[in-house]
Structures
1.
Amino acid sequence: MERGWLHEYGFFLCLILHLLLQGRGDTFTINCSGFDRHGVDPVAFQAVFDRKAFRPVINYSIPTRVNISFTMSAIVEVDAQLQLMTSFLWLNMFWYNPFITWNPEECGGIRKISIAAENLWLPDIFIEEFMDMDQTATGLMVYVNSEGLIKYDKPMRVVSICNLDIFYFPFDEQNCTLTFSSFIYTVENMLLGMEKKVQEISNTSQDLIRSKGEWVLLDIHQRMMKMTVGTNQYDQIIFYVAIRRRPRLYVINLLVPSGFLVAIDALSFYLPIESENRAPFKMTLLLGYNVFLLMMNDLLPATGTPLISVYFALCLSLMVVSLLETIFITYLLHLATTQPPPMPQWLHSLLLYCTSPTKCCPTAPQKGNKGLGLTPTHLPGVKEPVELVGKVPGPREAELNGCPGSTRAQQEYEAQKRHLVNLWIEFSHMMDTLLFRLYLLFMATSIITVIVLWNT
Ligand SMILES: *[C@@H]1O[C@H](CO)[C@@H](O)[C@H](O)[C@H]1NC(C)=O
Ligand SMILES: *[C@@H]1O[C@H](CO)[C@@H](O)[C@H](O)[C@H]1NC(C)=O
Ligand SMILES: *[C@@H]1O[C@H](CO)[C@@H](O)[C@H](O)[C@H]1NC(C)=O
Ligand SMILES: *[C@@H]1O[C@H](CO)[C@@H](O)[C@H](O)[C@H]1NC(C)=O
Ligand SMILES: *[C@@H]1O[C@H](CO)[C@@H](O)[C@H](O)[C@H]1NC(C)=O
């Protein structure tokens, strides 16, 4: 008897449970009969549309989970002055609306329908770095499937603020952030999640950005965060968008011409200083370089001090220094040939030491020879022919010249003066070579420094 009762009781329990479960499974909120014959009945959705002002949940203490993902389709512009990055995103959002469910079998197999987005509650996800009016197109649609999963896609032109560091200018990489968050819903009401892996987002975006613009998308990383404001906590997803500039334009238009001009400037040291061409030549180069800088100014970032500006300043100062050097040497030569001052003893011995066969001091072979073998007839300012060092005309020659009247003392004085002039000329050439080498050394170190800085 007892067993039978138990058995009966169990049976009823099963029946009730079964009915309950079946009943639950069948509580479709949308009566979709006739959708396949007469089209969607707006009356069936009216109850849902009327609720659009409220977050669609049955139990209000359960947060709505919104999954987001995006595809970056273009990097339009990166503005270093305003610190803005303009990009194009296709934002996808997914969430459940439990008030929209129907039975696909009853509706002729309709599994998803599209609804105008303005009729439904939409999550207020925004990008915190956004710095522009939202120009999202109106009249967008959402897809709803029979389980109430809503898929909302919208294209966005995102002008986001980004901390741009232009120090390494044409070879720079930037790391911009896009922070997705809800505007008002705290974590008790809304949770954010990822629809797909960030690596997938990065891969599809890289495939999509096929344009050969200035910027290359390197990678996208992601981090989940909770932002606390006062007592409220907001869910956040931060995306780090790493981009790199294509430097070719700048290398061809800025670095190469500048390098050529400096190279020509360095080579112009081989113009003989006596021909008086060197200074005008360097002057012209300097002028040309200034014109080049003026023309290329538009290509440089308007703010900050990138390394490339330092490089340009360096090139300019190298040119100025070389011009100054030429002026100095020209002045020295002029002084030597018109009124040579007495040479200090130490300088004389240094000169002798340096021109001795075992050279230790910087005298380029050709230049040194030229300095020694110079016939100062070519020199401006030297009227009388002056002979080579050490070849002081002897008394016999002087007698043969038919100037017996000119005293021996005067001749000796003349010879000494010529010797002095030659010494000074030699000294000038030595100075020229020495300064040229210093210039080369300085140029090499500074350029190597800049290149090393660029590579770090
Ligand atoms: C669905 O609506 C049709 C009329 O449009 C009605 O005949 C039917 O009884 C309704 N079904 C349910 C389960 O309410
Ligand atoms: C609503 O959800 C909360 C938290 O999950 C739960 O404690 C509460 O019982 C639920 N209310 C109802 C009426 O189901
Ligand atoms: C969001 O993603 C999580 C796991 O990634 C998943 O469990 C959940 O169902 C998703 N929600 C929606 C609305 O897609
Ligand atoms: C993304 O692409 C890389 C190679 O380009 C591949 O190794 C990786 O598996 C891809 N990831 C996904 C999620 O597709
Ligand atoms: C971008 O910056 C964030 C934080 O500053 C860092 O975690 C991330 O690794 C950076 N990404 C790249 C590619 O440098």
Note: The chain has a mean pLDDT of 83.
2.
Amino acid sequence: MINNTSNKDLHLKNQTTIIIMTLFYLFLIFHQLTGSMAADSPSSPYKPQDNIAVDCGSSGINNQPNDDRLWEGDINSKIFPSQNQNTASVTYTASVPPTEVSPTPYQTARLSRSQFTYSFPVTPGQKFIRLHFYPAIYGDFNTTNAFFSVKTANYTLLSNFSAFLTTRALDRQSIMKEYCVNVEQGEVLNITFSPVLSSNSDSFAFINGIEVVSMPTNLYYYPADQNRGAIFVGQSSLYRIGNETAMEMEYRINVGGALISPSGDTGMYRRWDLEDDYLTIPGYSVLPVEYKNSLNFTMIPPYTAPASVYETGRSTGNIKDKAKLQSYNLTWEFPVDSEFNYFVRLHFCEIVKEMNRSRNRVFYIYIANQTAENGADIIMWSGSQYTPIYRDYVVGMFGKGNGKKVNLSIALHVNPEEWRTAYLDALLNGIEMFKMNDSDGNLAGPNPNPRIVSPTAGPPSKQGSKGKNNQTAIIGIVCGVLAGVLALSVVGFLISRRQRNVKQPSSVDGTTWWGPTSHSTTKSGDTRASLLPSDLCRYFSLAEIKAATNNFDDVFIIGRGGFGNVYKGYIDNGTTAVAIKRLNPESSQGAHEFKTEIEMLSQLRHLHLVSLIGYCHDDREMVLVYEHMARGTLREHLYNSDNPPLSWKKRLEICIEAARGLHYLHTGAKHTIIHRDVKTTNILLDEKWEAKVSDFGLSKEGPANMANAHVSTVVKGSLGYLDPEYYRRQQLTEKSDVYSFGVVLCEVLCARPPIVRSVEKRQISLAEWARNCYLNGTFHEIVDKHLRGKIAAECLNKFGEVAVSCLVDNGSERPSMNDVVWGLEFALQLQESAEENSSEMKGGDEVAFLSYSEDDGKFSCSWDDSEQKSAGTKPSSSDQSSDTNQSIKGMSGTVFSEINNPKAR
Ligand SMILES: *[C@@H]1O[C@H](CO)[C@@H](O)[C@H](O)[C@H]1NC(C)=O
Ligand SMILES: *[C@@H]1O[C@H](CO)[C@@H](O)[C@H](O)[C@H]1NC(C)=O
Ligand SMILES: *[C@@H]1O[C@H](CO)[C@@H](O)[C@H](O)[C@H]1NC(C)=O
């Protein structure tokens, strides 16, 4: 190895010392202008296990001001073993240091006219590889001549690549290329640089900096054993992005927000760019929106993206004028290479206060001019406001570009069908876009401007994409430019950078340094923890569990079930309350099955499912640790307890939330998961009265496991909730849960158990009684006396319709849980509008509320509405619905338009 750095450029260096200092000062200003000096977040949500940053062509450990990232020089380093093939490479310092980016790692480079390889002994797993290039003049190497390829064992990352042409086209000094690859067990990550040796023998390869940084497992990939994947746009299928696929990051955008520097990322040193260069504004103004409170990372891990990505977004801004709406698409355009598939991740978070429930903001998403979503509904995906979520798409860009860049567009369009959405609005918070390798393992595209065929030519003078700002580029190639000229060009650069609106990729910007390490958040040292995704599910030692429950002391028991007892305990030095379920050794299955099921459970994350925190499997103990639900079961708040009765609206909200949780169980996971034991004691309430479904999962999965479910002849479920069809035909489907949920709805309305033996025969089974009353038009008779006069007639009617539809005999005729959610939300809307209306009207004479008089312990009812007063005549259900239309005629038009047209769905 030769190191020419110190002697050759010595006088040049002296000459430029002052310039460097000036430039550094300007660099600081520049960074302040672009906001990339964002403060380091003190505790990153993720610490990468491998966190390698190589400053090629230098020695020792280097860092840069304002960044604690340490770059290790490759001279005499084990990462760059001096084997034969590598001896031809040399190292130099750039004759002109970079001004746009920090000196480390850009000012030094390794260069060679023959092939050389870096070997990284990394842990197995998914990694980022980042390559940094600063095409300047290094000794007698002029990087305008450098054309080379970069390969790993299986993939071609770059081919016939010219860093010079690429940076020129982008109007930048430097370029960073980021890749995602998986390293198998026992594999050494080799990165090989090979100059293209064609007619021009001057060609060489060079590199300024290399990073290899671990990423959380399956942050961007999908595990092989699951049927999950990105939505394959235009193909109506899923695309599973597996470990065999390498990807090149093309764009990573903080929509509506500021630039986020690598040190502001969640620990992976990703850079999030501004959207300005990509947003097309066709006439209408768009509203950036912003939110500044804490977000709930309940659906996705907090390392997915920095909170500031979700705290800002861009919306179309509730377009009220439908004429304008027809011509309005909020569109971003990204130049990409054609003939590749692209992976697009869209980040969402509902951060606008008014948009507080699903169906408030339903919109369309188009990717590459194809429909990707025709009912995008952020809250439906995320479960609640301020809860970040993302959606993944894969789109092919084939037969379009003819070797040139093509635009991949992402467009949001508001939903013109008013009955589907309360607001004509759309929102997006972040975009990530990756190129996926082709079938040959290739990721390389052509250089941006193929017209330059003679790399020996001097600095081309007309290569700037817009013919402006050429001074900037010259910085990179002219050696020994006078200080004045340099300073001028930097100032020129700063000005033009501020005004720049060139649509070009920014994945290539050079200021990217990435960072720190470690995989497992498991607190226990037990090796068995590694069998499961430790990010999702924590392993507890038996000692920890015993400490938390005082050795399973009975005084901590908060529930008993067929599977065993549930204890309340405290973990993490008594700071966190948890529910600890100790499975009965006799009643539970084998260890393998236990683990498989935990794996499945730990993947299930939903705001309305009680989350599994961890498990313990030790000494034949099988223990599950769940989040603790402070307010206990729903049943305790309905009857047979001293708790004050819940208001009708609260009950509706609880039903909606529980229905959402069940909907997620049925549709959100690998297989349909059938709860099999839906009841009011399995719906739990947290301290904020948020409802969550519990006790799922140690039941059977859906269709995939059907055969097994049949073998076990035990019909699981609780008396009074059992689907009669399941009982008759032993055929378990998710519609059995729908039936049980129908019973729950009746229970919530009537505040009585599903089976009461001490009453007259027709009332023993709540489901049967409620259904008969609904069909006979006497549904209001069975309502909880505490709700007397509090339920709007139209709401009760809708609620009854939903409940009874769940209880129909034939499972296939029952609604899906999604339909149930919609129906209940609609009922809630009806109730809210009626309440608003009646408080406005004071007398409430246009709104029919039910009121009751108690009569021999049975409830009877009369209507406030004078028309219905005549004793004995109860409105039939069809009477009720015509009454509904009448009663809402005075309502404001701001609620869902479905109200004006009850048959709309
Ligand atoms: C990686 O490089 C090391 C050292 O240069 C070499 O021994 C090994 O064979 C290479 N592995 C592959 C897969 O190319
Ligand atoms: C919005 O963009 C999509 C996809 O490009 C297109 O199909 C749709 O017609 C556009 N809508 C309007 C109103 O321009
Ligand atoms: C990506 O490259 C690998 C290795 O060559 C190959 O096995 C895989 O099929 C490629 N992926 C796609 C989507 O073609």
Note: The longest strand covers residues 405-414.
3.
Amino acid sequence: MLTAPVFETTRTSIGQCSVLDMVQQFGTPFYAYDLETIRARVNDLQAFDTIRYAQKALSNIAILDRLRRMGVQVDAVSAGEIERALRAGFDPAQDPHSVVYTADVFDAEALRLVQEHNIAVNVGSPDMIDQLGELLPGSNVAMRINPGFGHGHSQKTNTGGPQSKHGIWHTAIDDCLRRADRHGITVTGMHMHIGSGTDFEHLSQVCGAMEAACEQVGRTVTTISAGGGLPVPYQADQEYIDLNQYYELWHATRKRVADSFGHEVRLEIEPGRFLVAEAGYLVAEIRAVKEMGDNLFYLVDAGFNDLARPILYGAYHPISIVHRQPGNRQEHDVVIGGPLCESGDIFTQQEGGFVAKRRLPAANVGDYVVLEVAGAYAYAMASNYNSRYRCPEVLIEDGTAKLIRRRETAADLMAQETIPSI
Ligand SMILES: *Cc1c(COP(=O)(O)O)cnc(C)c1O
């Protein structure tokens, strides 16, 4: 069973690797991912028949490769994610469900790849059934259902209900079945990604809606997917989810559907954040320390182009300091910001952009700041804003720090640009 998280405010290593050694080797800023943590989260979910990694959380092909070796399958939401899955060794020819394309639309390139590699599809719009049927009549599909209600306080993270663009509206199932019939398409999978988090009352509503939707589709259904949305704690006062309870609710749903159909039904889970969030660390160097009125600022060499969750969602990341010299330090309330020419480039902020302070041990220019629980939706959202080079990614595996993406260069930055002749 998982225990509550403990976040220290100083550290010297990540996994078995010394931060100072990694700084020497890779420079700053850089992301480090501890593979042991990813492995532990995969083990937590072994009760499910299939763990399908939602790679949009962290899509480096080395991470996909290692997850594949752990027996995890993969979800792709774009043509690029299908290409990444193929590059990482997922073979849809051997196992037609090793890669599933889940989306609300097909763009031309995604549809081409689906056809070329016979990728399984989870459709989120009735039109996708017709578009697939014209190219690949006789296929099997999964349907992502919007049960008519969602969860979550933010429009940006809500994945169900009438305000959400995701999935097939629950009353449109019959229409979809007629479309499928026209193309000889069989609906073999049913999927809901609502993100109930730790709200089990809400989750049982989702399970009830899944059961009803399966009954409506009928006996062709052989797989149900619980989607993603498993939370991880980002702060010491947040708890791990009770995975047993989570599993039992879905397992009971699967059993009822299986009993009703008289055949076995597989249960998938599709986590992104849960598998990788806690494994990730963004390491940056403190480049300036300055007092501004009542605020003490540590300015570091990583910005929101490296980690956007604070400016996007007011997200909280645990922070620790790596000192170049050991010793006890007094604690101070500090604001941590980056180098971008934008006042919102602050890692310690709350929703609405309000600057927050963090109690951390005193540090100097040349010490390091580690932004923690930064594996999910972190590098995946990195950009070149301010023409900054995206930073390297490092995989910590068996006590060794291995480069899995090098730092970008000026050549990378401008590689797709041309100055046309006059
Ligand atoms: C984003 C996404 C997930 C993963 O969500 P997490 O909250 O990271 O677990 C799973 N399934 C689909 C279809 C998604 O779009």
Note: Residues 193 and 227 are 4 Å apart (CA to CA).
